[in-house]
């Protein structure tokens, strides 16, 4: 699924080649090329590219837009499930302490 991002525009404004960005982000030039064409990538790859471009992770929307990718949704679902498990464990632990 193609998504709009600003990777190419930002990279070019910083006078970086695809090879330089790929090296800084520890990914392949082909990965950079695919992302600049709008293909999706893993969340970890986005994180690497954001940092390699000199942005903070909180500024990811400046690089990748406001999209909600499948990776982002999956990540938030995992966090939600983890939080609910913690609540269940805490509640279960309270019952044991009182006994």
Automatic annotation (TrEMBL):
SMART domains (UniProt xref): HTH_XRE
SUPFAM superfamilies, per the entry: lambda repressor-like DNA-binding domains
Lineage top rank: taxon: Bacteria
Domain HTH cro/C1-type as annotated: residue spans: 7-60
Composition bias type Basic residues, residue spans: 80-99
Region called Disordered, residue ranges: 66-99
Molecular function terms from GO: DNA binding
InterPro entries assigned: Cro/C1-type_HTH (IPR001387), Lambda_DNA-bd_dom_sf (IPR010982)
Protein name per UniProt: Putative helix-turn-helix motif protein
């Amino acid at each position: 699924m193609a998504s709009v991002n600003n990777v190419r525009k930002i990279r070019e404004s910083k006078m970086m080649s695809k090879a330089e960005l790929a090296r800084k982000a520890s990914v392949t030039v082909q990965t950079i090329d695919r992302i600049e064409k709008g293909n999706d990538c893993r969340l970890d790859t986005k994180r690497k590219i954001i940092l390699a471009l000199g942005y903070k992770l909180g500024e990811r929307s400046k690089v990748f837009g406001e999209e909600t990718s499948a990776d982002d949704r999956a990540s938030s679902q995992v966090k939600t499930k983890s939080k609910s498990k913690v609540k269940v464990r805490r509640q279960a632990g309270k019952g044991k302490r009182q006994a």
